[in-house]
Design brief:
The protein has two helices and 25 strands. With 361 residues, it is mainly beta. The strands form six sheets. Strands 2-8-7-4-5 form a five-stranded mixed sheet, with no helix packed on it. It has a five-stranded mixed sheet with strand order 10-16-15-12-13, with no helix packed on it. A five-stranded antiparallel sheet has the order 21-20-23-18-25, with no helix packed on it. α1 packs antiparallel against α2.
């Protein structure tokens, strides 16, 4: 019996205590980033004193290793750090983020390079509408994307001063070609954002020359005073939350909780898919639509890969709001599966007690 119990006791001790280690560093980095998008590096350390300084280095390792940029980090009391690298103009390929310390350093083998891929599909987009257009009340955004077929593309347009003037809204493509006239009210610089169903984003600058027209103000429909329902679910960038909203006829408002910069995608009663991300962390995202008493499907996830939290969806003038993981299929996502919870910590000492009792008997 001693031969059985003693090894088990040693194993349980290792589980409870773990191995002692020196200072450690870990980095959380997305596996893939589109060219032009900021690369956010979030790290945590243990065993390092506040004020300890080191560098985070960004390398291109596609063919031969070459440094792109580096930033110094000075640890604060909580041991965490974050840096952001720009990826504008980088070619598609393999890149790495590494920790550089003076001398031998303190992080030892934990400062392993983290590999990521940068995707650059700039050449896949061809714009056929003029990049400089005379003002006539509309901006023509037309072109084609290689290999897109009839999958559609999401278009958003910002105008002078960064004001949103269109979308984000999905538009049809035929053999990869698209064309959309966007209503505008003045000349100036406009930026069109185009995103395909792999979430790759192209950005195109247009210049509109000419005067300004006065547009008669319109009164937006006020949502009806119907029932209000809410539902909540955990959401992260890799595991979005999915909801079903059963609407009543008339104006319907759907809002998110605040505190996290949420991205909301929804499929309306006509099957149109739209993405909304107009607010930051301090204000909720809001959708207002004219419903016919049908179903709206909603997908919610954080803008940042490093964030996660409880997403609350509230619908006004609706029959119900419910969490439904099967909605993932409607967005072309795999349906989330429920994972088993890890063994609770109290079970370890319980097992130890049972072994000791068995030994006494």
């Amino acid at each position: 019996m001693k031969r059985i119990v003693l090894p088990l006791l040693c194993l349980l001790s290792l589980l409870l205590v773990g191995q002692a280690s020196a200072a450690q560093v870990y980095m959380d980095i997305p596996k893939s980033v589109n060219e032009g998008q900021p690369l956010e590096v979030v790290g945590t350390t243990t065993g390092a004193s506040p004020g300890y300084a080191f560098e985070v280095v960004f390398y291109d390792t596609t063919y031969a290793k070459s440094e792109i940029a580096r930033q110094q980090v000075v640890l604060q009391a909580d041991g965490s750090f974050s840096v952001t690298f720009q990826t504008d103009g980088l070619k598609g390929g393999t890149y790495s983020i590494e920790i550089a310390e003076s001398g031998d350093g303190i992080f030892g083998g934990t400062k392993k390079p983290v590999i990521l891929t940068i995707v650059n599909r700039t050449a896949d987009l061809t714009i056929t509408s003029p990049l400089s257009q005379a003002y006539d009340g509309t901006l023509l955004v037309a072109g084609s994307v290689k290999g897109l077929g009839d999958a559609g593309i999401q278009l958003s347009v910002t105008g002078p001063g960064g004001a949103n003037v269109y979308g984000p809204r999905w538009i049809a493509t035929t053999g990869g070609a698209f064309s959309q006239e966007v209503p505008i009210t003045q000349g100036g610089r406009y930026v069109a954002g185009l995103m395909d169903n792999t979430s790759y984003v192209w950005s195109v600058d247009f210049t509109v020359t000419g005067g300004i027209v006065t547009v008669a103000p319109t009164t937006a429909a006020t949502p009806a005073e119907g029932p209000t329902y809410s539902a909540a679910a955990q959401a992260s960038r890799s595991t979005p939350a999915y909801f079903v909203v059963e609407t009543l006829g008339g104006p319907v408002t759907i809002t998110t909780s605040s505190g996290i910069d949420w991205v909301v995608e929804y499929i309306d009663e006509s099957g149109g898919r739209t993405m909304v991300n107009n607010q930051g962390t301090s204000a909720p995202e809001q959708i207002t639509l004219q419903a016919r008493g049908g179903t709206v499907y909603v997908k919610v996830y954080p803008q940042l890969y490093t964030e996660s939290g409880r997403a609350v969806i509230t619908g006004k003038n609706v029959k119900s709001v419910a969490v439904d993981a099967s909605v993932a299929e409607r967005f072309g996502d795999p349906v989330p599966t429920t994972t088993e919870s890890p063994l609770p910590l109290w079970s370890v000492p319980a097992a130890l007690g049972a072994l000791l009792l068995f030994r006494r008997r």
